[in-house]
Amino acid sequence: MDFLPADISSYAETYTSPESALLYQLNRNTRAHVMAPRMLSGHMQGRFLSMISWMIRPRCILEIGTYTGYSALCLAEGLTEDGRLITIDHNEELEGFARSYWQQSPLNDKIDFRLGLASDIRPLLDDTFDLVFIDADKRNNSLYFDLIIDKVRPGGFILADNVLWSGKVVTPIKPADLDTIAVMAFNQKIQDDSRVENVLLPVRDGMMVMRKL
After folding, report:
1. Torsion of CA 89, 92, 98, 100, to 10 degrees
2. Over 70: is that where the pLDDT of 29 sits?
3. Where are the domains of the chain?
4. From CA 11, how far away is CA 17, in angstroms rounded?
5. Beta strand 196-201 pairing with 129-134
6. Model confidence, pTM
7. What is the pLDDT of residues 40-99, one digit of tens each?
8. CATH number for the domain running over 6-212
9. Which residues are CB-contacts of 61 (< 8 A; sequence separation ≥ 6)?
10. Distances (CA, A) of 161 to 101, 125, 135, 202
11. In which band, very low, low, confident or very high, does the pLDDT at 135 lie, cut at 50, 70 and 90?
């Protein structure tokens, strides 16, 4: 995920607003105690997600892929007073870990965790979403987009993480590298979809930002 020189990344984080004490502890303990900590959004990306949410002031957010709950807290910061965030993940082992941090936040009552597969849960939701964040298994990015596009309001936003996939999208592809193939197919799918306007930002591991037309 490290595309920029380490000193440039460090400089950028230095001049980015700090994460809260709670987010810092969640960040630290995820890295210390949970497998695959690179899946965590972390300081820079977390502040980016918070900034986007504050800009939009969404009433309803959908997150696909919860992990340890860091990004949910960041996204929930910009919710309206009566807003809520629905976050979906199939990993029941991390539910208690995430909830233990949400419960320390005044945003806890705005976070609605759903345990299961997004393909099963999304059809049960009647909400119209102002903001969607896709950050789950990359082979299903296109499926997740198809599941949510008709439930996003016109003018609403969709974010998809890891769309540069550690830079593999611009290197020779091995036939067995199904994740990279899926990420590249998703990026092309979005580029060709007339229902959205999109920009791919080289933030951390790449963030696709889409606005529904």
Report:
1. 150
2. yes
3. 6-212
4. 12
5. unpaired
6. 0.96
7. 999 999 999 999 999 999 999 999 999 999 999 999 999 999 999 999 999 999 999 999
8. 3.40.50.150
9. 53, 75, 76, 79, 83, 84, 85, 86, 129, 130, 131, 132, 133
10. 22, 22, 5, 10
11. very high
